[in-house]
Design brief:
The chain has 262 residues and is an alpha+beta fold. The chain contains three helices and 16 strands. The longest helix is centred in the C-terminal third of the chain and has 24 residues. The structure holds 2-acetamido-2-deoxy-beta-D-glucopyranose (3 copies).
Amino acid sequence: MRIFLGLCMVLIVTGDEEMTITGNLEGSVLLPCNCLQRNLDEEFLWQREEPRTILVVKNTKNTSNYNSGYKDRAKLFLHENSNNCSILLTNITVDDQGRYRCKFYKKKTYMRVFVNLNINASYDVCQDDSADNLNANKSGKTFRCNASGHYGEAEIQWKLGGQLLTNSPDTNITHTNTLDDQTGLYQLTSKLITKLSGTPACDVKAKGLSIVIRDDCTTMTETLINPVDPMRYRYLKMIPIMLVVVFSVVLWRRGNSHRYQR
Ligand SMILES: *[C@@H]1O[C@H](CO)[C@@H](O)[C@H](O)[C@H]1NC(C)=O
Ligand SMILES: *[C@@H]1O[C@H](CO)[C@@H](O)[C@H](O)[C@H]1NC(C)=O
Ligand SMILES: *[C@@H]1O[C@H](CO)[C@@H](O)[C@H](O)[C@H]1NC(C)=O
């Protein structure tokens, strides 16, 4: 309670508050705005400030008017608590990234809360170095990379010793990008053939968006080939037990045979 009061004091003194929130593409995110003791007769609004100003929602005397672009995607909680001016954005897109402002009146003072919304897109990435390298030919060694995620404007890139690889007389990189209608995921693939020595590494890059990479060959190939069956690998747990049993039998038999030889 004391901390809470302390926070309120800070708010009263500074007026403005600023925070950064991260949401995941196509997910939902709560933009927080605590409007404790706000003046219920004055209007309250959320607007996006950057890259250009857009009114998200305006509330005057119990009536909320949403901008058409947010009508089905934004939700206020004023009916639950008139001092909770937070807004929930759902189905977030790349365009939702930016700086938002919550404005309300407390007594006669104009209060502002700024929220910077960053958007992450996550990709499952799987690199396969084994493919064709047993019979590496004079054009070089081949490496393959698969990635899957919700954002289509992304590309696989290759790095060797921290250096970005591009097409050159020594290196040939090809890409594919297809949308899987069933999962709604973009499947990116890239093939690298290079005469350079060393093992390159792949990752995913997108303009203006942070990409979260999950190194995940198991689920990638599983989901690509067939749906994951959790029972499928149950027998793997049996292997250590079987090993112990077999080992014990072998030791016991050796012990016995020594005894017979004597
Ligand atoms: C406002 O309501 C939402 C949804 O119930 C909740 O998650 C959030 O913590 C609330 N915020 C405040 C400041 O009370
Ligand atoms: C939001 O996403 C869900 C599931 O991904 C979909 O069913 C729904 O239609 C979307 N809503 C809007 C307003 O786009
Ligand atoms: C890369 O290889 C493909 C065939 O695999 C070929 O069509 C293309 O021209 C090559 N690109 C370069 C830059 O050498």
